[in-house]
Design a protein that fits this description.
Blueprint: H1 4-9, H2 14-54, H3 61-107, H4 110-113, H5 118-160, H6 162-169, H7 171-181, H8 183-209, H9 211-216, H10 220-272, H11 278-291, H12 293-320, E1 337-346, E2 349-359, E3 364-368, H13 375-382, E4 390-395, E5 398-399, H14 405-408, E6 412-415, H15 426-431, H16 439-448, H17 452-455, H18 475-489, E7 493-497, H19 505-518, E8 523-527, H20 531-535, E9 539-544, E10 547-552, H21 554-559, H22 564-579
Parallel strand pairs: 3-8, 3-9, 6-7, 7-8
Antiparallel strand pairs: 1-2, 1-4, 4-5, 9-10
Helix pairs in contact: 2-3, 2-5, 2-11, 3-5, 5-6, 5-8, 5-12, 6-10, 7-10, 8-10, 8-12, 10-11, 10-12, 16-18
């Protein structure tokens, strides 16, 4: 019942399976204890009937009082255990599920996040887990426990009278056959509703992220109109989904409750025929008052249970994605970066093809080329932010594809154009470069990156909060914090994506001087756009259409007639002269 397929269907962990088994067990016990209460009423009524018909003495009141007290205590204890198994354990499980999701996401290659946007992943971690938590706590244990307890009760009723048992319980399997028969409709409705909800989340996120551009271009009305249309569509899909599910759920409930009528009709017919006495019918009528109760909540949530499989599939898709894993040790012989016949495809689009070059330790290797030639891809592959599709990349003779990315990145410092900062102080944002760094170390790196100029002018200096992703700072200031973070880490390999592009000439000169001093002896791979950066490089690798077109020292490449590098340099110089 609770095998691997069941586990995947509802995205349960191994502990979640154990919790479901406990919840099922205690639900069975509770249902049987409650049915035992009906047995006490039956015994009391039987005693009084014998008194009325045969003149037997009234049954002892003390005996029934003790039975009632025992029933109340047993009911209280079993309900407590059921609550703990169905709610207490599950709420702890939700925390574990979210943590395991976060851990899994942490180990996935960067390319995965290019296929799933932020709103989608947020909805999976928060919304999908919330919906599954409700199913784990409110439905699975109750439903399967009700199945088992009803089967036990059915066997007991079969012993008393098989005809009344059928009349009483025939509606239960028919109701669930109807519900499970509609699961494809429910699943499809759930998928449509989920897709509409994601469109709403995407629309809200897009509007908030681009609010300045929207206002600057007077497009508020158009964007709000599109967002309202997405919200209206989501509302319609929700109403349609709930209506279709509600029809099946209510139909199933009505069918199941028809057992009351068939029990009364069948029992009356059997009494008139002299085949049973009134007390047998009375017992079945007592059973009817409780036998359907366990399914009431399950029926109300059965549609949610079926639709939750869409959420479970989204969770399992994350867990099924191959993680970027590898050895926990990284002991290279030096830090030369060697690309050997490297190929990389993104969404079936070939980005790199047969790339071969070496970035030597102690040298600055510049990657140059037209937009879309694969420069940034090479830098990300060099740090195993993405994995190669073909060939290999080695650092100090070690294939980085076989090293755990978190271990590997201990030897890397990176400064890319897209700076990521946190809603914290300048000091703490720089300290991210080196865990446990002292304030003196942080301030030294900040000074080397020329952060003093703007930080000391702020109300609280380096203790000033900078807002979400550095919203209170300019682009150049944000870039300098990122550079300071890399300088603080002081790793043997440095990847730069035109780190000085956002700085003015004066600040660029200061940062270039700091970088020149602090990058001595390191392996530096820089994505270069400005000739000033390229001229300072020891080696230039020119990429075009995902291949290495030229390679050599800047002076050598500039002398090549009809060379790509020479043409790019001439175009940039001409552009600079025109702007002057």
């Amino acid at each position: 019942m609770f095998g691997k397929e069941f586990q995947r269907k509802y995205a349960l962990t191994d502990q979640g399976i154990k919790n479901t088994k406990q919840a099922t067990f205690w639900t069975v016990v509770v249902n049987l204890v409650v049915m035992g209460g009906m047995g006490i009423l039956y015994l009391m009524m039987s005693g009084y009937m014998r008194t009325l018909t045969d003149g037997a003495p009234l049954p002892g009141g003390m005996t029934f009082a003790l039975l009632v007290i025992a029933f109340v205590l047993l009911s209280f204890l079993t309900h407590m255990q059921q609550y703990r198994a169905t709610y207490g354990l599950v709420y702890g499980e939700v925390k574990s599920v979210r943590i395991s999701l976060a851990e899994r996401l942490r180990k996935l290659p960067l390319g995965y996040f290019g296929k799933r946007d932020l709103a989608d992943l947020t909805e999976t971690i928060m919304g999908d887990v919330n919906r599954l938590e409700h199913v784990w706590s409110h439905c699975l244990g109750y439903l399967y426990g009700s199945f088992i307890s009803t089967a036990i009760i059915a066997v007991s009723l079969l012993v008393m009278d098989w005809r009344l048992m059928i009349a009483c319980l025939w509606g239960v399997p028919v109701a669930f056959i109807l519900l499970f028969g509609s699961r494809q409709i429910s699943k499809r409705k759930s998928e449509i509703t989920k897709e509409a909800a994601l469109h709403v989340s995407d629309g809200i996120q897009e509007t908030l992220e681009n609010i300045r551009e929207i206002r600057a271009t007077n497009q508020e009305e158009r964007f709000l109109k599109e967002l309202f249309a997405k919200i209206d569509h989501h509302e319609k899909t929700m109403l349609s989904g709930e209506l279709s599910c509600g029809i099946f759920v209510n139909a199933a409930s009505v069918i199941m409750r028809l057992g009351v009528a068939t029990t009364i009709l069948t029992g009356t017919s059997l009494i008139l025929a002299g085949k049973i006495d009134f007390m047998v019918l009375f017992m079945f009528l007592l059973v009817i008052t409780r036998v359907y109760a366990p399914f009431d909540q399950a029926l109300a949530l059965i549609a949610e249970m079926l639709m939750s499989q869409v959420c479970a599939n989204r969770l399992m898709e994350i867990h099924d994605t191959k993680a970027a894993e590898g050895a926990e040790e990284f002991v290279p012989s030096g830090h030369d970066i060697v690309f050997s016949n490297v190929g990389f495809a993104y969404d079936d689009e070939q980005v790199l093809k047969g790339v071969n070059f070496t970035a030597k330790e102690g040298e600055v290797t510049a990657l140059v080329g037209p937009s879309g030639s694969g420069k940034s891809t090479c830098a990300r592959l060099a740090a195993r932010l993405w994995d190669t599709s073909e060939g290999s990349i080695k650092v100090g003779g070690v294939d980085i594809g076989k090293v755990d990315p978190e271990v590997l990145l201990g030897d890397y410092s990176m400064v890319f154009q897209d700076v990521v900062l946190f809603d914290d102080t300048i000091l703490e944002n720089i300290r991210l470069g080196k865990h446990g760094a002292t304030d003196e170390e942080v301030l030294a790196a900040a000074k080397a990156a020329n952060c003093d100029e703007f930080a000391l002018k702020l109300p609280e200096g380096y203790a000033t909060p900078i807002g979400e992703n550095g919203a209170k700072l300019s682009g150049g200031e944000r870039q300098r914090i990122s550079i300071a973070r890399a300088l603080l880490k002081n790793a043997p390999i440095v990847l730069l994506d035109e780190a000085t592009a956002s700085l003015d000439v004066e600040n660029e000169t200061k940062v270039q001087e700091a970088l020149s001093r602090l990058l001595v002896g390191k392996t530096v791979l820089v994505i270069a756009h400005r000739m000033r950066t390229v001229e300072a490089a020891d080696k230039v690798v020119v990429l075009k259409d995902g291949k290495v077109a030229e390679e050599g020292k800047p002076s050598e490449l500039f002398e090549k007639k009809d060379g790509i590098f020479r043409r790019m340099a001439q175009l940039q110089n001409a552009s600079a002269c025109w702007s002057i």
